[in-house]
């Protein structure tokens, strides 16, 4: 009988060690890939207004869908950060909830923006702008790729965390099963395993928040650079007809269902800004604008439920 108790005790310790050792040896996210020093403005701090084929009086930037989409993605990222910050690390489903929110922000919202930028926008800019601007466009492309890779690292962090929590939970289950029927009190082992699991979950979610905040700051800088430099550059070198043709190509690439969801996000992110709302009315057909409340209710709200707390009103 004594030997049986000893074996049971050794198995309990082995299960606990498995959960602890996994926590200490799990892959961690290293240095971020973002390069904040890369900036168009560092190379050319302002756009010379004397350049460009379009007369100064006729210059207008019409690719506002890209601007609104970028702002909408930034808003989604901010909501993701706040969602993760408000998750309870003690709850066993906190990592799964964070993963669902990430899948929307990165798998739907940001993926669409990244696809437009890499497949359509940057190639179009290279065709429209003079060769002398190739270095600035290289920097812009590097910035976009940096942000995309950072987002993938956030996803890797969540996947690793989810796997680790599953293994630690399995180890805790083994501890509970082995402790049944034993005359030896092993409650301190169970408490230790549960505490380590909660602490690891808290640390992992905190890393996700830090990486996301760094990405947010970088994306804000990229948007500011674009507003300051690329917007007047495009207005000077691309005619209104050329810009409108690009806008149509973007709408076709998104698909009807996705375009409706993105349009609702754009309308929400510019709400209250009179200048942007005026541009929105000028560029978005009236029929589409009239459908936004319905698309918001039927498509957007169910899709973005993962970014709202259970207590948060719609």
How many strands appear in the DSSP assignment? 0
User: How much helix is in the residues?
Assistant: over 70%
Distance between the termini: 61 Å
| Strand residue percentage | under 5%
Order of helices and strands: HHHHHHHHHH
- Report on the biggest sheet: none
What structural class is derived from the secondary structure elements?
Answer: mainly alpha
Radius of gyration: 25 Å
Structure overview:
By secondary structure, the protein is mainly alpha-helical. 76% of the residues lie in helices and 0% in strands. It contains ten helices and no strands. Helix 3 (64-85) crosses helix 8 (256-269). The longest helix has 51 residues, at 187-237. 31% of the residues are buried.
What's the topology here?
Elements (H helix, E strand, L loop, with lengths): L1 H24 L14 H4 L20 H22 L8 H35 L5 H46 L7 H51 L2 H15 L1 H14 L4 H10 L2 H18 L11
Helix pairs in contact: 1-5, 1-6, 3-4, 3-6, 3-8, 4-5, 4-6, 4-7, 5-6, 8-10
């Amino acid at each position: 009988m004594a030997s049986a108790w000893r074996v049971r005790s050794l198995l309990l310790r082995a299960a606990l060690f498995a959960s602890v050792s996994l926590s200490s040896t799990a892959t961690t996210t290293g240095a971020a890939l973002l390069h904040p020093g890369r900036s168009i403005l560092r190379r050319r701090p302002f756009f010379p207004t004397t350049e460009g084929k379009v007369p100064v009086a006729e210059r207008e930037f019409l690719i506002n869908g890209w601007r609104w989409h970028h702002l909408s993605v930034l808003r989604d990222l901010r909501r993701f950060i706040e969602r993760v910050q408000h998750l309870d690390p003690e709850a066993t489903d906190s990592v799964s909830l964070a993963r669902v929110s990430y899948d929307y922000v990165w798998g739907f919202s940001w993926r669409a923006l990244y696809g437009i930028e890499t497949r359509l926008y940057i190639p179009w800019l290279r065709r429209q702008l003079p060769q002398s601007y190739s270095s600035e466009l290289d920097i812009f492309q590097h910035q976009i790729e940096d942000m995309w890779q950072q987002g993938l690292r956030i996803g890797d962090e969540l996947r690793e965390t989810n796997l680790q929590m599953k293994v630690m939970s399995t180890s805790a289950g083994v501890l509970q099963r082995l402790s049944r029927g034993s005359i030896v009190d092993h409650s301190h082992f169970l408490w230790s395993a549960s505490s380590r699991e909660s602490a690891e979950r808290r640390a992992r979610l905190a890393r996700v928040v830090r990486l996301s905040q760094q990405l947010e700051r970088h994306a804000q800088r990229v948007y500011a650079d674009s507003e300051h430099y690329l917007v007047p550059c495009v207005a000077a070198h691309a005619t209104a007809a050329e810009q409108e043709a690009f806008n149509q190509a973007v709408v076709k690439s998104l698909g009807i269902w996705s375009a409706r969801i993105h349009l609702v996000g754009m309308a929400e992110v510019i709400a209250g800004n009179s200048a942007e709302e005026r541009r929105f009315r000028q560029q978005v057909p009236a029929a589409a604008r009239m459908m936004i409340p319905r698309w918001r209710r039927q498509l957007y709200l169910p899709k973005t439920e993962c970014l709202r707390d259970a207590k948060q009103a719609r």
